[in-house]
Amino acid sequence: MRSLNYSELISSNRNFRNLLAGQFISELGNWFNFIAGLGLVRFVSDASPTAAGLFFLARLLPFALMSPIAGTFVDRFSRRQVMLWTDIARAAVALSFLLIKSQNDLWIAYAATVLLHVFGAFFDGAKNAAAPNLTGKEGLLSGVALLFSTRFLLMAIGSALGGWAAAVFGYEVAFVINAVSFLVSAYTVWLIPEEATRDVETAERMADRNARESFVTELREGVRYAFRERFAQTILLLNVIWATGGGSINIVFERLGGVYFAEVEGWNADIAVAILWTVTGLGLGGGMFLAHRASVYLDRRGRNYQFIGWALILHGVLFSIGGLMPSLVIFAAFVFSSRLIIGVEYAVQETMFQRSLPDIIRGRVSTIDRGAELAVFGLSSFAAAELMYHITPQTLTVVSGILSALAGILWFVRERPVREA
């Protein structure tokens, strides 16, 4: 099957362009919020590792816990309406960060972060379930790569601009930008027709309420599929294993950039953290842009299996080595290389996963996978924060890379019997 390249998909598909534009604006605002929120928590808590850990937990755990429910919801109801109203709700919540003035107000930061990511679970569930319908089979690889690459490039741009804005104008500006970005995203979603977000068979089944199972039954159906279908199960396990190490990245960047290198090399703390997230976004985004060309080459030579396993191992090894580097700039170079490799790998892996899922159940299974990954990611972040009282950030970085690399070992163990058969 021929795969559309990026320019062909964007030029010929107005609905996908609108979705991509909305994500572009809202993700830019999200990273303003992340850098400003983290900086504000650091400032009012006197750089407490526990406060930072709770902030990361508030970002990740609610998303993880709500994802299976959100996935079932978007498989039953209008994906377009879910994206539209959750954007509007997030715009209101984003402004609540303006109320934080002292350590006694930290609960507002945590509560607002929880709400942003509960609504975010529903938005992402609807977006991910609708994307294959908007792109079509020929545009799926390019669509996945573009959605994720722009997200990660905006991690770079938003982190850089957010760090600069926080340092120059104060945190309040970043929170206002975040709220406005959600409203712009809502407008772009409103431009997408309802019928474009589902295939015909699924739309007909939704219209026939007598043919639909209960909400709980459909939720169970999604869980059973994720845990019983071998490939879905492999992807689930792969991402969970990766997250045991990957979750530490939040604390690694905060303590190495915002504390250690800020003290040793004299960096502004917000800018140092922003630099690390910027090179992470550039690496992941660059990897995603390379994914189309890499996937064509891998498909032609039948090497997807080897590539996924070895890429996972190599990216973890590079991240571990980076933790031993003596300066922020050199560490950032290793982070960039590691993320570039995993960016290509993730696009190839995610395309294979999305192609394997029927539209009628895609929202449930993809959000269960994402939710499980982020649950472990969040718990790993909090555990890493608590470890900062006992080990150095450099040691944590080495351990984080090794744990993430184990996902590649798991891939070879799980998929080798299938490949041989």
Architecture overview:
- It contains 16 helices and no strands.
- The protein is globular.
- The chain is 84% helix and 0% strand.
- α3 runs parallel beside α5 and α10 runs antiparallel to α16.
- The relative contact order is 0.16.
- The model has no long low-confidence stretch (mean pLDDT 81).
- It is mostly helical and 421 residues long.
- The protein has a single domain, classed as Growth Hormone, Chain: A.
What's the quick description here?
The chain is mainly α and 421 residues long. Helices cover 84% and strands 0% of the residues. α6 runs antiparallel to α12, α9 packs across α10 and α11 packs across α12.
CATH class: Mainly Alpha
Q: What is the first-to-last residue Cα distance?
A: 24 Å
User: Over all CA atoms, what is the radius of gyration?
Assistant: 21 Å
Biggest β-sheet description: none
* Average pLDDT: 81
Low-confidence stretches: none
Count of spatially separate domains: 1
- Per DSSP E runs of 2 or more residues, the count of β-strands stands at 0
Class from secondary-structure proportions: mainly alpha
CATH fold-level label: Growth Hormone, Chain: A
Globally, the shape reads globular
The DSSP helix count reads 16
